Please model this.
Amino acid sequence: MSKQYSIVGHNQYEGQLVDGHLHTELCPHGTGEKVALLIEKAIDLGFYKLCLTEHAPLPSGFVRRYKGDKEAYDTAAIRTDQVEPYLALGTELQKEYGQYINLSVGFEVDYLPGFEESTREFLTLVGPYTGDNLLSVHFMLGVDDGFWCVDYSEAEFQRGFGPWLTKQDVLYRRYFQSVLEGVQTDFGPHTPVRIGHLDLIKKYQHHFNFKSSYDKATQQVIREILQTLRFQNRTLDYNIAGLYKSNCREMYPSSFIQGMAYAIGVPYMIGSDSHGVSAFENAWTPE
Ligand SMILES: [Zn+2]
Ligand SMILES: [Zn+2]
Model:
């Protein structure tokens, strides 16, 4: 038995228990708990497949375009010198648990406009050693023409995107526009197959009193993202972490986007985005 979520859409893994978005003990903003414990829990629960998707290192030049909190930057992703240990850990875990569960080892890669080339190089280098990779937007252009973290804290969001807090449609459209550019970018033969938490921009929606509807122009950008994904045969990460964030209380993406994805024909894989065992248990064990 496991928890059920109410979702609209076409499940890529219909009838199977899967989690397509997981972090490990190497994640600097995680709990440091060994992901092996999480894997054992998943095997107990009868899971068919898990995807480890650790945050890929940020491109070296990105720090100069970043204007936000230093701690947010320093803890956003693993370092370049941790890539090999991460892949080695993945191989070890596959050896240990591979006979009980389908374990994919990959990265959650950031789409950062202007840094496409380094991202393509990274994916070309690690791609052959990875399974499912995710493409996500955690950073967006804001104040001072710099990049700011979208999901670090309410205060940081306010600092980076303050001028747009009263122009929600513009702010959201800017986010989806960045996702669209990411989706249209060719990252080479190992371009990520799945798009992470498509509407992460709403993470603090209750704090900032954002509405849950989109204007026509924003809907059009979302439609274009989904049509592109359909054409490319890519999928969406239906991310349940948002449900458990006090100022979000909703999955990523919203039911509106889920409905649109269903109509357009973009399948999903559910992901808990767990950064430790207790989040995983909370996401999957019935109360
Ligand atoms: Zn994370
Ligand atoms: Zn993410």
Remarks:
- The first strand starts at residue 18 and ends at 22.
